[in-house]
Design goal:
By secondary structure, the protein is mostly helical. The protein is 76% helix and 0% strand. It is built from 21 helices and no strands.
């Protein structure tokens, strides 16, 4: 989203004095050079520059904000979240940073963590269309589709409604178990300029998001009957077959997707992950390495590559890859568990124990969150 760049404006406003307790000219030159590198797309140089400023002044809000933007632009959302959180610990009222933090969570599909930021945003500006859409997205995908519907209905009652709002409304109906209303909304959406293939593609995506995989399968099959060359259709049908545990069909569709578009990184990733899960480790690695070359900031790619190397007893490679996965997504217990196994095989018992302790902390945190949710719902402690 373009809004991820909003932190740049904040940072530039704050950059009149980017350094405290250091040579002002050096700090200013380093900061300006890093900002110029960021704007020109030279991300390694920009990251080096902002980190140099932060080494000298760890509370430099301008450098932290821009570093967060850089990480978001390069899809390193875990690191972006960390940078934005550091900014807000120093300056809690920076609304643009709150927005960017919410968007970073959203990009990771971590809807429950994104939700509070967008709720605040909506409460401040109830008539803001974008704020309502972001909040409705989080509600819909975090198990509260009814509340999402209440936000989306007013957005879709205009004579010429926003197609994105209509689509999300259809998804909310589907997730709320209101199949007929969902179909009516999609029919309204599809009555515009969409072709039958495009209409069914959107319908398939909505069913997939709602975990209605048989319905998604039928929709994507209709897409391929209407337009066998529609970009992404084979990939999406392959993903559906993975969810249905029809691995042979999934492999067939994903290979067709790659044949149609050799730059489809997502198809390479899903096919590689499928092969690793099917214990075809070397084949899986070849596809995952291709996916990693196109999207180097996908933690899940490193996870499956590390898993494959661990199963092939190349524990040194597994440690390297799984370390990368845990650094990029420190909330995934599976990555830490496999890392602990790999470290122990390499003889690093102390590090392995630390990784397993992190697994326990993550599971404990998850259980605590579930208990709080049940308590809020009146389930725990009810008499």
């Amino acid at each position: 989203m373009k809004l991820l760049a909003s932190a740049i404006a904040i940072a530039l406003l704050l950059s009149t004095n980017p350094g405290f307790g250091m040579d002002a000219d050096t700090a200013k030159h380093t900061f300006e050079a890093a900002t110029q590198a960021l704007n020109s797309g030279d991300y390694p140089a920009a990251e080096t520059g902002f980190r140099k400023v932060l080494e000298l002044d760890p509370r430099n809000v301008s450098a932290l904000a821009n570093l967060g933007v850089l990480y978001a632009k390069t899809h390193r959302y875990g690191k972006a979240i960390e940078a934005y959180q550091r900014v807000l610990r120093i300056s809690p009222q920076l609304r643009a940073i709150q927005l960017d933090l919410g968007l970073a969570y959203l990009k990771q599909e971590d809807y429950s963590h994104a939700l509070p930021y967008f709720r605040q945003m909506h409460n401040r500006s109830p008539s803001d269309h974008q704020a309502a859409m972001l909040l409705a997205t989080c509600l819909t995908f975090s198990g509260h589709p009814e509340e999402g519907l209440s936000l989306l209905k007013p957005l879709t009652e205009a004579e010429d409604p926003d197609p994105a709002a209509l689509y999300l409304l259809g998804v909310a109906y589907a997730r709320a178990g209101k199949a007929q209303q969902a179909q009516d909304i999609f029919a309204k959406l599809f009555s515009s300029s969409a072709t039958p293939a495009q209409a069914n593609f959107l319908l398939g995506h909505a069913y997939y998001d709602a975990a209605q995989f048989r319905e998604a399968e039928q929709a994507y099959q209709a897409v391929l009957q209407a337009d066998p060359a529609l970009p992404g259709a084979h990939r999406e049908l392959g993903k559906v077959y993975i969810s249905l545990q029809q691995n042979a069909e999934a492999e067939k569709q994903l290979k067709q997707a790659i044949e149609a578009d050799p730059q489809d990184a997502s198809a390479f990733y899903f096919l590689g992950a499928l092969m690793v899960q099917s214990q075809r480790y070397q084949e899986g690695l070849s596809y995952l390495e291709k996916a990693q070359s196109m999207t180097p900031d996908s933690w899940a790619t490193y996870f499956y590559m590390g898993k494959a190397q661990l199963q092939q007893h190349d524990t040194a490679a597994a440690v390297r890859l799984l370390r990368q996965a845990t650094e990029m997504n420190p909330e995934d217990a599976g990555s830490f568990y496999l890392l602990a196994r790999a470290l122990r095989s390499e003889g690093h018992a102390q590090e392995a124990d630390a990784a397993m302790q992190h697994v326990v902390r993550l599971h404990t945190s998850s259980l605590d969150a579930e208990k709080h949710a049940l308590k809020d719902a009146g389930v725990v402690g009810a008499r």
